[in-house]
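re the bet — no i am not wrong, look at it urself. input seq straight from the record:
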Amino acid sequence: MLLVPGKAEERRSRFFFLKQYLRKPFGVGAVAPSGPRLATLMVRHIDLKPDDVVVELGPGTGVFTRELLARGVRPENLILVETNPHFVNFLKAEFPGVHVANADAQDLVKILKGLGYAHVQKIVSGIPFRSIKAPDRKLIAKAIATALAPAGKLVQFSYLNGAPLPKATAAEVGLTGKRVGLALNNVPPAFVWQYTKKS
């Protein structure tokens, strides 16, 4: 049975996101949460299997989280990694049973180890890679590649018409990327990329 997010949940997410943006605009990667159509596009390209353990990086108010749950990911198989403590509290209240870590994506391998996982097959990310300093971006890319099992998938979106991860950085950590979609109706429009770890 698929769980379909309601308008009340969407309004609650948008209102909370706006509050966080007004409080600390440079600490939030966008002026509005991602739209449900972008979430559908992102999850479509993660190639979900029934028992997949999925990591979501930078979930914000959980727009992609809702879509992952609606598409059959079990709450206990979903791991959210969020740096903003206000978003963390919101996510814990909205999604009981989902693992929520108040941590940096650079610590992903340690987080997974603490939960008993050596690797995962799927990662969904809303991290604004293009606005992160190059050394930090490289550390996060390395953490993602280390956490992914061989042939594992990362789905990432970007508001810019270019690869979220520079090609050299992706290649260095063993990821191959391709653009797989465009959500024109998102505000702002967003490009969706799928990265695969070398098998």
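see?? The mean pLDDT is 87. told u. also DSSP finds seven helices and seven strands in the chain. so pay up
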